[in-house]
Design goal:
Blueprint: E1 2-6, E2 11-14, E3 19-34, E4 40-56, E5 60-64, H1 71-78, E6 86-91, E7 94-95, H2 101-110, E8 111-114, H3 128-133, H4 148-158, H5 175-187, E9 193-197, H6 205-222, E10 225-230, H7 233-239, E11 242-247, E12 250-256, H8 257-262, H9 267-274, H10 281-284, H11 317-321, E13 327-328, E14 334-335
The chain binds adenosine-5'-triphosphate (ATP), iron/sulfur cluster and magnesium ion (MG).
The site of magnesium ion has 4 residues, from helix 1.
Keywords: ATP-binding, Nucleotide-binding, Transport
Pfam families: ABC_tran (PF00005), oligo_HPY (PF08352)
GO molecular function: ATP binding
């Protein structure tokens, strides 16, 4: 799977395999209701409004955007916890929204999720051993009953937890360790894809790096594919082969990490990147700082045309009437801006 080393990032460059997940024009509109006795629908929250994504075997796609832009709603639809309003999720070519019975059960095994808050997602009354082994009650064929304790302890060891702590409870672990429990629980089902919904956002920076490194090691060992969600572009860069930037329910720019970080073409990506810290002291003064005006508009009442126009310093009349398509406008990768223009926000060596 890994056949070269990205010198800058000092990590293997993956040669991605076949398409595993394909998301096409995915939408989720939550009804807004009014009234206590007679509930009427008075509008919709357009949490996800036309997302397209592709995830290949062995690769990591980063999905980045501010709070409330719809990232978790995308992940919930991907792991079949929410039904899309419209659009398709294809897994190995099969439409997940039409799956039932054995096919859905198999899908739920192969596509696992790791949540942002490792404490809230672990049952406080269950021991770590029971949490890790829980999925085997549904997928009994993966681990024969007799060897389950040993298998659980092997998994704990693999994710960097002391296997002697198998009978401890989640509150007896630190935040980083609890996230490792969540990872072991996902791994127990031998998944192909792990959807990581902000898995390190709640952790200290030093612990974040350890958990990201663990996820990379596991990817190399087991050939896993990740959809890695974050609101911080710097976290995603370390682990992603490709990055998609999301704003108010849809993707505004997509490309390899070199394209998105080196020559961002959408004003929103440029603004996000300008807030990422630069670690090299001699480059710090060269970075542009773009301060975004205003708040993210409500997804219940998004702006017409380009959704970013209320905060965009480049907006013109056409931006209020024509929604910009996500296409390559000459920058070598797609962006959803009528006036897309590559701009190096983060300085690089040379
Ligand atoms: N069940 C629901 N009913 C109504 N609105 C919802 C529901 N779930 C999410 N939303 C709304 O959809 C929008 C997107 O929410 P979502 O949780 O997907 O965002 P997010 O990008 O994951 O944010 P964060 O970074 O804070 O986790 C928000 O405006 C949220 O309030
Ligand atoms: S389409 Fe217009 S408003 Fe939207 S990002 Fe581009 S310039 Fe800004
Ligand atoms: Mg979220």
């Amino acid at each position: 799977m890994s056949d070269a080393v990205d010198a800058a990032a000092d990590r293997p460059v993956h040669t991605p395999g076949e398409v595993l997940l394909e998301v096409k024009d995915l939408k989720k509109h939550f009804p807004l209701t009014q009234g206590i006795v007679l509930r009427r629908t008075v509008g919709h929250v357009r949490a996800v409004d036309g997302v397209n994504l592709t995830l290949r075997r062995g690769e990591t796609v980063g999905l980045v955007g501010e709070s409330g832009c719809g990232k978790s709603t995308v992940t919930k639809m991907l792991v079949a916890l929410e039904k899309p309003t419209s659009g398709q999720i294809l897994y190995k070519g099969e439409d997940v929204t039409k799956m039932s019975g054995r096919a859905l059960k198999q899908y739920r095994r192969e596509v696992q999720i790791i949540f942002q808050d490792p404490y809230a997602s672990l049952n406080p009354r269950m021991t770590v051993g029971d949490i890790v082994a829980e999925g085997w009650s549904v997928h009994a064929d993966i681990a024969p009953k007799k060897g389950r304790l040993q298998r659980t302890q092997e998994l704990m060891e693999r994710v960097g937890l002391n296997p002697d702590f198998v009978n401890r409870y989640p509150h007896q672990f630190s935040g980083g360790q609890r996230q490792r429990i969540g990872i072991a629980r996902a791994l127990a089902l031998q998944p192909e894809v792990i959807v990581c919904d902000e898995p390190v956002s709640a952790l200290d920076v030093s612990v974040q790096a350890q958990v990201v490194n663990l996820l990379e090691d596991l990817q190399n060992d087991f050939g896993l594919s990740y959809l890695f969600i974050a609101h911080d572009l710097s976290v995603v860069r370390h682990i992603s082969d490709r990055v998609a930037v999301m704003y108010l329910g849809s993707i505004v720019e997509e490309g390899t990490d070199a394209q998105v970080y080196g020559s961002p073409a959408h004003p929103y990506t440029q603004a996000l990147l300008s807030s990422v810290p630069v670690h090299e002291p001699h480059l710090r003064g060269l970075k542009e700082r773009i301060l975004l005006q205003g708040d993210v508009p409500s997804p219940a009442n998004p702006p017409s045309g380009c959704r970013f126009r209320t905060r965009c310093w480049k907006a013109q009349d056409i931006c209020a009437t024509e929604p910009p398509a996500l296409v390559d406008r000459g920058q070598g990768h797609p962006s959803a801006c009528h006036f897309a223009e590559a701009r190096a926000v983060v300085p690089t060596e040379g």
